[in-house]
Amino acid sequence: ILNVEQSPQSLHVQEGDSTNFTCSFPSSNFYALHWYRWETAKSPEALFVMTLNGDEKKKGRISATLNTKEGYSYLYIKGSQPEDSATYLCASQTGANNLFFGTGTRLTVIP
Amino acid sequence: NAGVMQNPRHLVRRRGQEARLRCSPMKGHSHVYWYRQLPEEGLKFMVYLQKENIIDESGMPKERFSAEFPKEGPSILRIQQVVRGDSAAYFCASSFASESYEQYFGPGTRLTVT
Description:
The complex is a heterodimer.
Chain A: E1 5-7, E2 10-14, E3 19-24, E4 32-38, E5 45-50, E6 56-59, E7 62-67, E8 72-77, E9 86-93, E10 99-101, E11 105-110
Parallel strand pairs in A: 2-11
Antiparallel strand pairs in A: 1-3, 3-8, 4-5, 4-9, 6-7, 7-8, 9-10, 9-11
Chain B: E1 5-7, E2 10-13, E3 19-24, E4 31-37, E5 43-50, E6 53-56, E7 65-68, E8 75-79, E9 88-95, E10 104-105, E11 109-113
Parallel strand pairs in B: 2-11
Antiparallel strand pairs in B: 1-3, 3-8, 4-5, 4-9, 5-6, 7-8, 9-10, 9-11
């Protein structure tokens, strides 16, 4: 069992503000790092899968970076909008195929 | 292309009954994963299956729980003689291949044991 930790647990930001949150994971046996966006009553939606140290990925206003040596990933949201309100989950994948999830960061964007 | 389908979405069982949860993966996906979310906890891996094979069941309780993914038809997670502690949301995910591919999640089945 891997200990994947996310911080902060919850976050409130004003519309238009940029924000970021952290995922830390054990760097040994690392295979891939997944980010998901999970809206209430919906399925978790895959955002990014990253495998290489120094990887950066971007999708619209959302981007993520990966540091496998020190075991952390950041997710950034630029110019937050109310529709960005959701729980953002990260998950570490080891050589096995299952994902070890953090408990998520719950983001609320206030209009 | 329909996403991952799970049914039922809500299931109520009395203690001692059996619960059967179904998962149809996305078209073309042959890898299925089951996760459980207990109240106030994160998603926890239970089992990983490919068609007709259990690949990794390290997260599955040893008793009362079983899973299958037959050649034809959906994957089934079966819980026998349910207890109150089995009340949780059970999510299924599928992927095209296991290495570094996104796992696409279904909407989950919320099991309530009374």
